[in-house]
Design goal:
Strand content: 5-15%
Radius of gyration: 24 Å
Shape: elongated
Number of strands: 7
Number of helices: 13
Order of helices and strands: HHHEHEHHEEEHEEHHHHHH
Distance between the termini: 21 Å
Structural class: mainly alpha
Helix content: 40-55%
Strand order of the largest sheet: 1-7-6
Length: 358
């Protein structure tokens, strides 16, 4: 990629509401059809706003609208329909608030699932069959599952009775119901919450993260300005939304082909990984990956490619990090196969005739 001079660049298009002076944003506005782009932003703002947490500040809302507003409307709508919730984290907060981690798998839903299973036991039971220790009671097991109040113990025992109607002997079905504060979760959701807390112990430790188990997208407030003090023009919220897109597409008929293609790309790029890492450390510009972080996993590879596809490299104005190398031009030059894969995926949501990037 040819370096961009540090001279002031053209101002943002007038229809992008911003009072921020200086360089144009990293999002790809140049060479786009202004009318189509303006219509897309108008359609996307209410969808983005609906996904933002009520605690989002006006300037943060404007930043997220700017970065995600260029995405296909149908993709954003699919994310909203899925229940994706965007929460802006702030320094000093200890991890994401519990209220974000809702679950429809409460005791009532669990009992309904057990009743349905007893009516059709050919399907997998919604709980594990174990040999119950004669010294154990359902209260003991409820407390082991996090129940701390009499109401929670009663809720667990009610589910257990539905799981084991008229059960005799010591082989019982233990409900997959866990408690975390006021939350009632499946074991899978409970495990996801614990993993997220371990990964995101406080809001100073990460730029952003998407947890598919809860459909929660967390972004550090310091990663939102353009350029930001954390990543310059690198758009963290676009990267994290790349994980959302990956997850949504994985659930479509095109998903299996996407995952197969991405796996093949990683195999082609990443054979002899240790030797490749040494080579990249010595000559980063020769890496077959769009970024070092893209080597972490196939999901991160896709998310890094997604961020690059929707952005263009810009001078950051940060002395120790003057350039954000990720960008569409860089992606096309360094990983043309990944660019083609993401381009195909985006056409699932925005046909070429309606895509302002065309």
């Amino acid at each position: 990629m040819q370096p961009i001079s540090g001279a002031p660049l053209s101002p943002r298009p007038s229809f992008i509401q911003s009072d921020t002076p200086g360089d144009v944003p990293a999002v790809r506005y140049e060479a786009l059809d202004p009318d189509l782009l303006k219509a897309r932003y108008a359609a996307n703002r209410p969808i983005i706003d609906a996904m933002l947490d009520s605690t989002t500040r006006p300037e943060e809302k404007a930043d997220v609208e700017r970065d995600l507003g260029i995405l296909p409307t149908a993709l954003l709508q699919a994310a909203q329909d899925r229940g994706v919730h965007i929460y802006i984290t702030r320094p000093g907060e200890k991890g994401p608030p519990e209220r974000l981690f809702h679950s429809n798998t409460d005791a009532d839903v669990q009992t309904q699932r057990w009743d349905a299973w007893h009516a059709n036991p050919s399907t997998d039971a919604p709980g594990a069959q174990v040999q119950m220790d004669k010294a154990q009671t359902w209260t003991d097991i409820a407390q082991a599952h996090g129940a701390t109040t009499a109401e929670q113990v009663k809720a667990f025992e009610t589910v257990a009775q539905h799981a084991n109607p008229g059960a005799a002997g010591d082989n019982v079905y233990v409900p997959d119901l866990w408690f975390d504060g006021d939350l009632q979760l499946t074991g899978q959701a409970h495990d996801a919450l614990q993993q997220l807390r371990q990964y995101y112990p406080n809001n100073d430790s990460q730029d952003g993260v998407f947890n598919a188990g809860f459909n929660v997208l967390l972004v550090n407030e310091k990663a939102l300005p353009d350029p930001s003090p954390l990543g310059g023009h690198y758009r963290t919220v676009v990267h994290e939304f790349g994980h959302v897109a990956y997850d949504i597409i994985a659930g479509t008929p095109d998903g299996q082909q996407m995952e197969t293609d991405l796996h093949q790309l990683d195999q082609a790029d990443g054979h002899q990984e240790q030797a490749l890492e040494q080579e990249i450390a010595q000559e980063p510009d020769k890496s077959p990956f769009i970024s070092a972080y893209a080597m972490e996993s196939e999901a991160e590879h896709y998310a890094e490619g997604f961020e690059s596809y929707w952005t263009e490299a810009r001078h950051d104005g940060v002395p120790e990090r003057p350039w954000t190398a990720n960008g569409a031009t860089e992606l096309q030059g360094r990983e043309p196969a990944l660019w083609t894969l993401i381009d195909h995926d985006m056409q699932l949501f925005a046909p070429k005739t309606q895509n302002p990037l065309r």
